[in-house]
Amino acid sequence: MLMANDSFSNVIVAQIYQVVSDKLSQSNCCDEKNRTLREAFHKSLKQLAESMGKNVEFNGLTGIDKVLKYSSGIQLENNFHLFVESAIAILECNAIVVTIDDVDMALDRAFEVVDDVRRFLGCPYLIPIVSGDIKLYEHMTQTHFDEKAYDNLTEDEQLKENGQKLSKELTTAYLTKVFPASMRIGLFSIERILPKLSIWDDEEQVTYKNYREELLNRFYFLCHNRDARRYWSDPESARELSQLVRVIKPKVLRESNNDTKEIELHNSFKNWAALKKSGELFAHSESAITWLHEGNESFDIRNLLVFNIVRQTDKVAFPWSEYDVLTTQIEALDSLPEQGGKGYKNLELLKSSFSKSLTCLKAMPPMEFLVKDFWITIPTIKNSKQLKINNIEDKELLSEAKKLGEQWQSENILQYTAEQLLLDVYTDSSLYSTLNNSYNFLFFSRAFELIFYSLKREENLKFLLTNVYQILRRKPFYSVISMADTKIAFDGEEDELSFSEDSTVISSSLVLSAEIRAWREKYKDVFKEFDAIKLIPIFSYCFNSVLTAMNVIKGNYSRAKNKKDTSEAFKDEHLTDMVIRFKYNLLNSILRAGIFGEAIYANVLIGAKSSTVRNADKLKSYERTYQRNLNLLEEEQSSFENNPKETARLQQVMRLHDLISEHPVFSMVIDENNQHLLKIGSKDRSQNSSETEKENNKSSSTSRANLEFINYEDLVLCQDNKLDKFLGDSINDIAVILTNIIKGNVSKESTILEKLSEARESAENRKELDTRIKSIRSALERQGGDFFESSDFTSIKNKRISNILRVVSKMELNND
Fold it and tell me: Is the dihedral of CA 669, 671, 674, 677 positive or negative?
């Protein structure tokens, strides 16, 4: 190993000297022959030292001294030859073998090493063995000649081009001379050796092929094909292979570990993944360690690195991460028409959460963006069928629930419907405080978290209830609204457990917990086969696959909603239909991962008609991708009859598929009785609401206005004018008036007053409208009597809004 100021030739001389000194120390010093050899050796060493003077020693020398110094330099090779000759005489050998390795550890000295091989090691008494990639020597030699052949700063392009050509020619000629083809020995690459390699573990011999499969089966459990394992990388050098085998010994992979041993195993594998800079493997093991450390008391999927895109972008912890976050997410956002819709600020939220320089550990799916019309409205909910779900019969769970507080003891929490459960699991209305009574946007990452959590064995009923409750209460973990702490956030996450006044989440938590318990009991034999911690890799794969598919479906849905689109897809889409699309993409991703051979790598139900999706017979004949993957798995089971290990693993994949297909987030809301619930979009076209819509569309001033519906653009307009700063929740009332009464370009105070008065002519409208007007007045009065001269008011840029506030503040309300 070269030190900072050492020359390679000095190191070679020093090593030969050390070996000879050791030999002399063992010989008889009084022997005449040994004394003669010793003197000859020291004399040759002295001559060699004099002739190895560096160029710097020539400084200050003139005349005959300088000539003599040059003369000494000319004798260098001859003196080196004599030195080696005297050394082998003492060592009583025919030649000295010099091994040269690790030039890559001192790249700036690489050419010096090669040149010393040329000058000194051409001695017939030395056999140099130089190891390393020839590409390394080519690169460093050409770098040396580049510096000599041309000036990189020259403006003469022809001169530079000729210099580059000359440099390449000199490099080839030079290395051909130093390392002639006849003397080169090419070694097999590690890739060619691995298939025939065997590993000795104590007294047991294991082929690398079997070791690799056991390793992948442990850390890529149920992920069997190249797509599911696409980020796995075999050792690329003997050093990497030896380190891997030392870190994860073959026998360890067959042991059943307790939590402590499992943590040690994943920690060792995590270290090797960091060495390989394999972000996916690192995230898998780090997530397993976190899961094992945390226990069962509190579950939050965001604590698992593999599902948390924000934590993965920590440049201090993971400076070697390589996946561009912002660019990838913007590409996914651009696939949605108008990036989800005008005024939805998806791009703004992304840029506020991730800078251009941020990278993450692994490829992550598109985030769940806000998409226009991809919601359930309040009128739709009010006009729904309200299908009852069977009562909870789990008395043990009900008894435990009552211990959680008064809100869990109310009789109301036992009154739940399929619609309520659908809304609590698959939608979120806390995007903006003012949307709380207007829209329920659709998201699927909350359902994914519920599924993943329910795979974890939970014996403590209190933990089960509170964890399910907290998952339902939190914003969907992979939605764009959960990524940025902006005004979009309805409220902050709570560190301590507290229960909402809204009993629907409590009742949904109760019924889901009961159903999860029943589901786990039904499939208890399946759960005995594998620990949930092993499922992190396959669910990481499913997570990417299913959310990528849902982003495509959202884009197709949004395009189908365009008036110019004549396709029949999504024409009558309900939330239950969208849940079916989510379900089959999740099931398809499990099959895709579990097939040993080539699966069909395509998303499912991305453009199917709503009527096809909700009809089981039509769906089976229409959806070829899912059916083909299912058939492939079944065919592989038959073909592997003589291989019990592979057969057992395929059966595990099938059992995982079956138990997920009957998970409560699907089975409780999708069956023969309720496959047509909650129309998606701005209007509910069900029979129950058709008359209401007709009334709302009438131009007569006495018609009943829908004073609960808000256009998103009107709400954004209010927010952009910062009305929430002084109106608070009453901003919702202004948005209702903008959407339903003061429409279009109306801005004059007189016209606004006329429109509001006309709307109040209906007794039914009057009560609702007066309540909203009074709410706005109360908010204005709290600002003081000089509000209309304040900077808050003058900062309102929209004339229509400012005049509405003026009219509302002085409008006479009577009950005539």
Answer: positive
Looking at residues 408-417, what average pLDDT do you find? 70
CA–CA separation, 453 and 301 (whole Å): 8
Compute the 3-state secondary structure of the chain and give helix, strand, coil in percent, each to the nearest 5: 60, 5, 35
Using CB atoms within 10 Å of the CB of residue 549, give its burial: 0 to 12 exposed, 13 to 18 middle, 19+ buried.
buried
Looking at the chain, the whole-number percentage of residues with pLDDT higher than 90 is: 32
Which tokens is 254 given?
A: 């067959």
Model's pTM, two decimal places?
A: 0.74
422-462 pLDDT per residue, tens: 999 999 876 553 444 467 899 999 999 999 999 988 778 99
CA–CA dist 364, 218 (Å, integer) = 22
Structure token digits, residue 598 = 């080539």
The string of DSSP codes covering 673-710 is T-SS-SB-BS---SHHHHHHHHHHT---TTSPP-TT--
Residue with tokens 């040059």: 70
Which of these, 39, 73, 28, 29, lies nearest to 54 by C-alpha position?
Answer: 73
Residue 461's beta-bridge partner residues? Answer: none
User: For the residues of 222-245, what is the DSSP string, one character each?
Assistant: T--STTTTTT-----SHHHHHHHH
Residue 306's contacts (CB-CB under 8 Å, 6 or more residues apart) are 280, 283, 284, 286, 287, 362, 536, 540
Looking at residue 683, what is its pLDDT?
Answer: 58
The confidence band for 760, taking pLDDT boundaries of 50, 70 and 90, is confident
In this structure, what DSSP letter does residue 614 have?
Answer: T
- Whether the CB-CB separation of 793 and 806 falls below 8 Å is answered with no
What is the Cα–Cα distance from 782 to 778, expressed in whole angstroms?
6
Residue-level pLDDT at 429: 77
Cα 632 from Cα 746, distance rounded (Å): 63
672 pLDDT more than 80: no
* Mean per-residue pLDDT of the chain: 82
- How far apart CA 650 and CA 637 sit, in angstroms, is 6
Residue-wise pLDDT for 170-193, tens only, equals 888 888 888 888 888 888 888 888
63: left (phi over 0), alpha (psi -120 to 50) or beta: left
In which element (H, E) is residue 206 found?
strand 204-207
Looking at the DSSP bridge assignments, the partners of residue 359 are 324
Q: Could you give the residue ranges of the DSSP H alpha helices within 354-431?
A: 378-382, 395-402, 418-426
Domain residue limits, the chain = 8-132, 190-312, 324-360+365-667, 703-810
Tokens of 617: 């017979």
Distance CA 92, CA 595 (A): 65
Token look-up 């897809």 returns: 569
Q: Is 405 left (phi over 0), alpha (psi -120 to 50) or beta?
A: left
Distance CA 343, CA 353 (A): 18
The 10s digit of each residue's pLDDT in 673-715 is 556 889 998 754 443 334 434 433 433 333 344 455 556 566 6
